Amino acid sequence: MYQQERITPYRKGDKGKQVEEMFDNIAPAYDTLNHRLSWNIDRGWRRKAIAQLSPFAPKEVLDVATGTGDFAILAARMLSPKRLVGADISEGMMEIGREKVKKERLDDVISFAKEDCMQLSFADNSFDAVTAAFGIRNFPDLDKGLREMHRVLRPGGHLSIIELTSPVRFPMKQLFWLYSHTILPLYGRLISKDGSAYRYLTATIEAFPQGEQMVEILQRAGFEESSFKRLTCGICTMYLAKK
Between β-strands 236-242 and 224-231, what pairing exists: parallel, antiparallel or unpaired? Predict the structure, then answer.
């Protein structure tokens, strides 16, 4: 068990159910907080993660832990797939995503499905690409979730992940620690009315495997040609892997 798997948003018990409850609670404020707390840098991170799939021109894409659909919408615009499925455990988040997709007139390409990422309902070898933006950190079982993502990928398909991480070098390491322990939980509590959610966010960022360790975890899940790139001084890390 990885350290972040022991961290829960609210209380002792089933982490998956708590994560679902947490995201349902903060769904109305989620997009505003994401963009403001990252000074809109998160938009550029998403764009980079999608761009690394462009050379492979995937036509069937699964976006795991899709949330309110920002990554799915951008992927549909940049990659022009025939079909893109956004999967998430939180109906509250996906309801917002459905409205955004409808407004963008992408509902003929993007659909949403409530899914337990530990046990996806899709058949083996269903997608050319699988993506995840800021979501795998919440998996109750990281190894199991990654194996499921590998299972639904077609041979030759690619996995693209971006995840928040802790910077490792001075002075960004110290500055990010100060920011994530003061401004982030305070602002998160004021806007979302759920202080526990943003304390949980900070704790899981610090505990989550990153860099070389994450590459090894991807390889154990069955992926090949796994690589990573740190973005914005290590606040975010981007991964690419192949089945």
Answer: antiparallel
Q: Give strand pairing partners of 131.
A: 63, 160
Q: Are 94 and 73 in contact (CB under 8 A)?
A: no
Element (H, E) at 216: helix 212-220
Contact 196, 9 (CB under 8 A): yes
* CB within 8 Å of 172: residues ≥ 6 apart: 233, 234, 235
Which of residues 90 and 168 earns the better pLDDT score? Answer: 90
How many Å apart are CA 110 and CA 186, to the nearest integer?
Answer: 34
Give residue-wise pLDDT tens across range 53-73: 999 999 999 999 999 999 999
Single-letter amino acid, residue 154: R
Strand partners, 172: none
CB 75 within 8 A of CB 131: yes
Question: Hey, is 56 helix, strand or coil?
Answer: helix
- Listed ranges 12-21, 22-31, 88-97; the one with the highest mean pLDDT: 88-97
Q: Which of 102, 101, 43, 47 is nearest to 79 (CA)?
A: 47
Which of 52, 39, 226 has the alpha carbon at shortest distance from 150?
Answer: 226
Cα–Cα distance list, 6 to 19, 31, 47, 85 (Å): 12, 26, 31, 29
Chain mean pLDDT for the chain: 93
Tokens of 243: 């089945």
Structure tokens at 167: 């910077």
The pTM assigned to this predicted structure is 0.94
Residues paired with 63 in a beta bridge: 86, 131
More confident residue, 29 or 104: 104
53: tokens are 């799939």
